[in-house]
Amino acid sequence: MEKLNQFQKKFMEMLAEIQDTCVQIALCQQKDCLEDMLYDVTADVIIAIMESIDGYGKLDFICKNTGQTLKENSSIELHDIVCEYIKGVS
Fold first, then answer.
1. Which of 55, 64, 71, 90 is such that its CA lies 20 to 30 A from the CA of 82?
2. pLDDT digits (tens, 9 = 90+) for 38-54
3. Burial class (CB in 10 A: 0-12, 13-18, 19+), 69
4. 42 and 24 Cβ atoms separated by less than 8 Å
């Protein structure tokens, strides 16, 4: 497996942090038994975003500082790799 560039890795870590934060906020408003369901729902949203970036949609992100694109290495499918970073993916 090829390595992610720094921009791709930071983006993956940011998505994982967003997911965890959203779930924790939702848990404050709901019962704890909803945790698995919330991770599943947020994982679905995140994977859909990655699919869009991978070319299934018309979305791309470019780092202002380096000019790197998240889809720079076309052999990496971000929607597959994101599963290594987030919870809720079976």
1. 64
2. 888 888 889 888 887 78
3. middle
4. no
Look at the pTM and tell me if it is higher than 0.85.
no
How many CB atoms sit inside 10 A of residue 58's CB? 7
Tokens of 76: 């990496």
Q: Cα(first)–Cα(last) distance of the chain, in Å?
A: 20
| Residues 74-79: contacts with CB under 8 Å, at least 24 apart | 75/2, 76/2, 76/4, 76/8, 78/8, 78/12, 78/50, 78/53, 78/54, 79/47, 79/50, 79/51, 79/53, 79/54
Residues of the chain with pLDDT under 70: 1, 30-33, 57-59, 90
